[in-house]
Amino acid sequence: MKRVMWLIPAILGFVFCVTTAQAQEVPAWEVAGGYSYLRVNLKSPSYALNGGFGSLTENVNSWFGGRIEVGAFTGTESHTNVSAQTITYGPVFSTHRYQKITPFAELQLGVIHGSAGYLGISRDAFRFAMSPAVGVDLRINDRAAVRLQGGYLLTHFLGLRQDNLEGSIGLVLRFGRK
């Protein structure tokens, strides 16, 4: 994990240093959805789940907004089908200074639901989840963009802390103007 952590400041530094001719307009609302990969419990036992995400963002101004995000993941761990679902909400900080890209950072708080077998739990359970993330929206046109996002997902099952990594790619649709 330490090898990957240097990438986040490097990417953000590059994104914020890029200059363009004009800023893009700020959409009032953004709806996004797509594919998501979850690397569960970076400690042992570690395994991968695949799934999807959906989010709704309201931009309050050109740099601050609120985002609700849901995710659903499935996979196999020790020959058992497992699933997890997340629902989180929190602030998102972005910059609309660039014409082709919109970098952002967010801190989401909420819950995770794990099925029986998820991280060895014996029955379904809901637990607290925290998910800081960074990403970038790559502009297709005024109404659409491609979202690339990476984040850390903190969970607590069986009285133990789990460090998880999540990566997502999806489509963003933008509505209204600020």
Description:
- The protein has 178 residues and is mainly beta.
- The protein has one domain (2-175): Porin (Beta Barrel).
- Helices cover 8% and strands 65% of the residues.
- The chain contains two helices and eight strands, in the order H-H-E-E-E-E-E-E-E-E.
- The chain has an eight-stranded antiparallel beta barrel.
- A hairpin with a 6-residue loop joins strand 4 (80-94) and strand 5 (101-114).
- The chain is elongated.
- The chain starts with a helix and ends with a strand.
- Mean pLDDT is 89; it is low at 17-21.
Q: Averaging pLDDT over every residue, what do you get?
A: 89
Q: What would you say the CATH architecture is?
A: Beta Barrel
Helix content: under 10%
CATH class: Mainly Beta
Lateral arrangement of strands in the main beta sheet: 1-2-3-4-5-6-7-8
Number of contiguous helices: 2
Write a concise keyword list for the protein shown above.
178 residues; mainly beta; Porin; 8-stranded antiparallel β-barrel; 2 helices; 65% strand; elongated
Give the SSE map.
Elements (H helix, E strand, L loop, with lengths): L1 H4 L1 H11 L11 E12 L6 E13 L4 E14 L2 E15 L6 E14 L10 E17 L2 E14 L2 E16 L3
Antiparallel strand pairs: 1-2, 1-8, 2-3, 3-4, 4-5, 5-6, 6-7, 7-8
